[in-house]
Amino acid sequence: MFGRGAPKKSDNTKYYEILGVSKSASPDDLKKAYKKAAIKNHPDKGGDPEKFKELAQAYEVLSDPEKREIYDQYGEDALKEGMSGGGGHDPFDIFSSFFGGGGFPGGGSRVRRQRRGEDVVHPLKVSLEDLYLGTSKKLSLSRNVLCSKCNGKGSKSGASMQCSGCQGSGMKVSMRHLGANMIQQMQHPCNDCKGTGETISDKDRCPQCKGEKVVQHKKVLEVHVEKGMQNGQKITFPGEADEAPDTVTGDIVFVLQQKENPKFKRNGEDLFVEHSLSLTEALCGFQFALTHLDGRQLLIKSNPGEVVKPDSYKAINDEGMPMYQRPFMKGKLYIHFTVEFPESLTLDQVKALETILPARPVSQLTDMEIDECEETTLHDVNMDEESRRKKQSPQESYDEDDDMPGGAQRVQCAQQ
Ligand SMILES: [Zn+2]
Ligand SMILES: [Zn+2]
């Protein structure tokens, strides 16, 4: 969209100058002038590509009555502003459509400048075992291939007609007047030819592809997942995406998506596993077998006399993930230990433990001092629940804060 206070008269002669015609040139004059200049300046004939582009741009605007009117009134900038995506057509497409989609007159090598087809991206779910061991997966995919019967022409004769709806450009420009000096210009693919710029008569239509130029084809691709590949890594099959006429076929790209493993977590080359020890194991030693991703049993044991603290880590070298393209090198396997403490102990157990464990710090409270303290009761709390409750009712939290100083003091007293 653009607005303009007053029509600007400058910069609306350049296109006429490029084509070497007068401002009153008829559509036929323009056609002749463009044809002559475009052939002379075509890059395939050693012409200057910039000049060729300018010619195409000038002709594209002046040959379209609506665009020519905007250009004559407001100049080049108005067209640029209205063009979606900073637009304009490919100069080779304009050249080709001018000559009816055929080759270069006089046998030039370029039939039509090829655009690149879109890549097709598929997620590929893999297990951590797949990434540890490497694997290959066969996938059956359906894709468009050029019709073999008509070689992607869509017609029996191989001929096609220029679409009358868009003069073969494949695009249409529509304009909306949004007020005195406001014009909104929009470019969109032509409906008549689905943006291809050409049409095929019903009689001439290829019976195999019904004029669609492509047919569906099933193909099995074997995807090799290499050892050590990462979540999100891409595996590319160049030129295996949908085929289309005058198009360089895009790639099929598989993006690895690692499924969660119930036991192992991965971080780069390292693996992490959780292991819970009983208090007895944590204090007196442990040993257990861990089944690795390849099915091997690893014997994991503590050193004699070693105590494992809650929330501590230990690592085993070279038992992590293989490194991508260096699978003989491996990361570390980290074990995160949690310790299950007993819920309670009998008095006898307490006595027995006290004879073994290091002596407790001597109480420095005299009986007198204890008598001066206030009695308290310790309750079990679930801190997560407490904080959630406090978030829900701030008023209650305020009340409890009020009580806190007293409570804190009491605890302090007991510890002295
Ligand atoms: Zn069309
Ligand atoms: Zn066909």
TrEMBL record:
Residues 13-67 form the J domain. It comes from the Eukaryota. One of its GO terms (biological process) is protein folding. Residues 376-388 have a biased composition (Basic and acidic residues). Keywords: Chaperone, Lipoprotein, Metal-binding, Methylation, Prenylation, Repeat, Zinc, Zinc-finger. Residues 376-416 are annotated as: Disordered. Pfam families: DnaJ (PF00226), DnaJ_C (PF01556), DnaJ_CXXCXGXG (PF00684). One of its GO terms (molecular function) is unfolded protein binding. SMART domains: DnaJ (SM00271). InterPro entries: DnaJ, DnaJ_C, DnaJ_domain, DnaJ_domain_CS, DNJA1/2-like, HSP40/DnaJ_pept-bd, HSP_DnaJ_Cys-rich_dom, HSP_DnaJ_Cys-rich_dom_sf. Plays a continuous role in plant development probably in the structural organization of compartments. PANTHER family: DNAJ-LIKE-2, ISOFORM A-RELATED. This is J domain-containing protein.
